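The authors assume throughout that readers already know how a fold can be written as discrete tokens. In essence, backbone conformation is discretised, so a fold becomes a row of integers matching the chain in length. A single example would do more here than another paragraph of explanation. For illustration, here is how one protein appears when written out as sequence plus structure tokens:

…
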Amino acid sequence: MEVVKIENVARVYQIGKVETKALRGVNLSIENGEFTALVGPSGSGKTTLLQMIGCLDQPTTGKVFINNKDVTSLNRNQRADMRRGTIGFIFQFFALIPTLTAYENVEMPLLLNGHAPAERRERIMELLKAVDLTDRANNRPDQLSGGQQQRVAVARALASKPTLILADEPTANLDTTNGQQVMEIMKRLNKETGVTFIFATHDPRVINYASRVVTLQDGLIEKDTQTR
């Protein structure tokens, strides 16, 4: 089943009289359960494409479908509902709330979606165990290493049982060991839960974990390779 379908998507940014074509008519389908890397040099369009899929930006032309729903036809509130219920995000700089513990950071999506306290606790502890951080549940981000913070971010992204996880340079601020640990956890959770992962990256360590590599250049898909 297609989780993501991109149809002839173009994105043009206009700053004063300067026009930048970030995407130039991209077509792409992502199937349920894929573990896909979007790669390419800076300015190739991979982050812009990730933002389109995540309902964080709108194409200038073309359509984006998530779970067969045309998200380009949705208003701002409907797109926010789509992000909250269907899509999990993992960011380069972790984006944890510094005053909250690991437990409370993972809890945030569940609070927003109205889950009951007992249900929240069960889900949070399940996820902290999945990312090997049960013993760090009461630590704030400044009491965690970068790798541990990113693992909390992975748990938070999965909290509401999304069908799709989007990760933008998830290992860019991690050393080799922590980067590998995060990718191994993401790959394991992909296999165990069946959730689809799409990540934009420059990092060859990340690319090596992907089962599919989509290479962008100058706003177009240059190559699309199944690696395993």
